[in-house]
Design goal:
Order of helices and strands of chain B: HHHHHEHEHEHEHEH
CATH topology of the largest domain in chain B: Rossmann fold
Mean pLDDT of chain B: 93
Structural class of chain B: alpha/beta
Distance between the termini of chain A: 17 Å
Number of helices of chain B: 10
Helix content of chain A: 25-40%
Low-confidence stretches of chain B: none
CATH class of the largest domain in chain B: Alpha Beta
Number of domains of chain B: 2
Number of helices of chain A: 13
Largest sheet of chain A: 7 strands, parallel
Largest sheet of chain B: 5 strands, parallel
Oligomer: heterodimer
Structural class of chain A: alpha/beta
Number of strands of chain B: 5
CATH class of chain A: Alpha Beta
Order of helices and strands of chain A: EEHEHHEEEHHEHHHEHEHEHEHEH
Strand content of chain B: 15-25%
Number of strands of chain A: 12
Shape of chain B: globular
Radius of gyration of chain B: 17 Å
CATH superfamily of the largest domain in chain B: Cobalamin-binding domain
Strand order of the largest sheet of chain A: 3-7-8-9-10-11-12
Strand content of chain A: 5-15%
Shape of chain A: globular
Distance between the termini of chain B: 31 Å
């Protein structure tokens, strides 16, 4: 790819956002599109700038019941979580929307699956062919047809999260290591490893996605919830099946896994995950240095309050790019700071290609 | 390896099926039931807590160890003289109003039980009045208040404020914890202690009660 030096004109707004709200960011006058830059990066080339979360467009449409139950519908519709979120997911598990949190939870205490060894008696797998995929694609046609941003979706409730939603957290954790229950977990994960690629295939066929973000939280604030051995034994074989199928469709695979999960990165690599952007409590620089040749580590610019002085914002953004520019990293969300996206773009462009 | 050491090893490894049989064997050998409880189980769970703090084991291993201990205590109960032999005091624990997270609170309950407390689990989404009602029991020595969200920290503040107004406040300690909570916040709202994890919570709670 030609190393085009950065010019100030690139920061001019070429077009307004495609949509309002979270999905929408103004389109800058970049020398290539954010999508082209991201795809080159994912393909192993040196990008013209560090790709950012805002260079993607992730559609999580209402056609997937999980997106409604968890209040995670981000598409061209007028979904209002405070009016419509919560209710049954695609397995009939009831979720409760918590407005103050902006997310949903299953109220613990009366799990849908009281005995994981007999989950087949309580769980019916969804008939995803019967969902109105064509109708959903039509609603989102403008987003699907755009070629400015990398198009993706998020699959909520990955393997471990799904298990938790079925039988509550404590029982899910025990089932992951109790030899009397592990066989049932293997059976469940194997069925899920058949389902998720079919779901991703629908997104490929109807939406043309290029990246999928698979949501499976494995950690707590202080440490992983599960040991590396447990993850390798219980999750990796099935996650790898899902990742391999996704790759066969020509789609990149990002893992979303909250918690301090540094110790579990080898499992992510073994499963073939392309990208992981963990929470800020993980040492991203160490991870990028140690594992950057095998998995792309996402890094978050420092969170800054809206009243942060301009000089401090500039310094933070510059230091962030200086730290992560040497590695094969991508950037996460730019929190609450209008202008930081442009600063990060500029510093990154200059670091990678120089200034005109 | 003595029978009590075998019990301790089985508890640490979470072998719930083995522990009751080992307890019976230890009793048949003439071991003191209180010693079986203290050395075979409570000490074993302390070791589990330490390994958890060092990230040598993780939450599932701690849960199965607690489950194994529970089975052992059930087998031991008929042989223990009185409730005082197995309880060092009563603790009530809950997650504050508006917060549905339960794993941290559940771990605290398990570790407090494993340290010898009688535990009343108030559940999740617990109104402050429910905490106060439970804390009015003169047997209560520890009130554990959990919050996992920044948005439910005000509910923790309100709960602790209400507890601090109770006439029997000097009889119990208020302990707080959860992902967004800090020692500074705990001090600011008038709690007696903040701990970072369930194992250290049990250890601090025990120090409040037995010195």
């Amino acid at each position: 790819m030609e190393r085009i030096p950065f010019r100030k004109e690139e920061l001019e707004i070429k077009a307004p956002p495609f949509v309002k709200g979270r999905l929408g960011v103004p389109i800058l006058n970049t020398p290539i599109t954010p999508r082209e830059n991201f795809l080159a990066f994912l393909g192993g080339e040196e990008p013209l700038w560090m790709p950012f979360f805002t260079d993607t467009l992730s559609i999580t449409p209402a056609v997937v019941p999980d997106n409604i139950s968890r209040g995670f519908v981000f598409d061209a519709s007028d979904f209002d979580p405070n009016r419509s979120a919560g209710g049954p997911d695609m397995f009939g598990v009831e979720w409760e929307w918590v407005p103050s949190v902006g997310g949903s939870m299953v109220r613990p205490g009366s799990p849908k699956v009281p005995d994981i060894t007999e989950w087949e008696s309580y769980i019916t797998f969804p008939d995803i062919d019967s969902w109105n995929w064509a109708g959903s694609a039509e609603i989102n046609r403008k987003l699907i047809d755009q070629k400015e941003f990398l198009l993706g979706t998020t699959i909520l409730n990955g393997l471990f999260e799904r298990l938790i939603s079925f039988c509550d957290m404590d029982e899910a954790l025990i089932a992951m290591i109790d030899e009397d229950e592990q066989e049932a977990v293997h059976r469940l994960f194997s069925r899920l490893a058949d389902l998720y690629p079919r779901l991703i295939r629908k997104f490929k066929d109807y939406f043309g996605i290029e990246i999928v973000t698979f949501h499976d939280d494995w950690g707590s604030q202080r440490a992983p919830l599960l040991s590396l051995d447990t993850v390798e034994e219980m999750i990796v074989p099935y996650l790898k099946r899902i990742v391999d199928s996704t790759h066969e469709m020509g789609i990149y695979f990002e893992l979303h896994s909250c918690g301090k999960n540094e110790m579990l990165v080898p499992a992510m690599i073994d499963a073939g995950v392309d990208l992981w952007n963990g929470q800020p409590m993980n040492d991203k620089e160490m991870l990028a240095k140690k594992y950057g040749d095998r998995i792309i580590i996402g890094a978050d610019p420092p969170a800054m309050a809206p009243d942060t002085p301009k000089e401090e914002i500039e310094r933070n953004c510059r230091e962030f790019i200086e730290t992560f520019n040497p590695y094969r990293s991508y950037g996460g969300r730019v929190r609450g700071l209008p202008g930081a996206r442009e600063l990060l773009y500029e510093y990154s462009r200059a670091a990678k290609c120089g200034r005109a | 390896m003595s029978k009590i050491e075998e019990i301790a090893s089985a508890v640490e490894r979470g072998k719930a099926k083995l522990v009751p049989g080992l307890v019976e064997e230890a009793l048949a050998e003439g071991n003191d039931p209180v010693e079986i409880l203290n050395k075979g189980m409570i000490d074993a769970m302390s070791a589990v807590g330490e390994k958890f703090q060092k990230n040598e084991i993780f939450v599932p291993e701690m849960l199965v160890a607690a489950r194994a201990m529970k089975k052992g205590v059930e087998a031991l109960k008929p042989h223990l003289g009185s409730a005082e032999d197995i309880s060092i005091g009563k603790a009530v624990v809950g997650t504050v109003a508006g917060d549905l997270h339960d794993i941290g609170k559940n771990l605290v309950c398990l570790m407090l039980e494993s340290a010898g407390f009688e535990v009343q689990d108030l559940g999740v989404d617990v109104p402050k009045e429910r905490f106060a009602e439970a804390a009015a029991d003169p047997a209560v020595k520890i009130v554990g208040v959990s919050a996992l969200l920044t948005t439910t920290m005000p509910a923790m503040r309100d709960t602790v404020a209400l507890l601090n107004e109770m006439p029997n406040r000097a009889d119990f300690k208020v302990m707080v914890g959860g992902a967004p909570i800090t020692a500074e916040f705990a001090a600011e709202i008038g709690a007696d202690a903040y701990t970072t994890d369930a194992a250290s919570c049990a250890s601090v709670a025990k120090s409040f009660v037995v010195g």
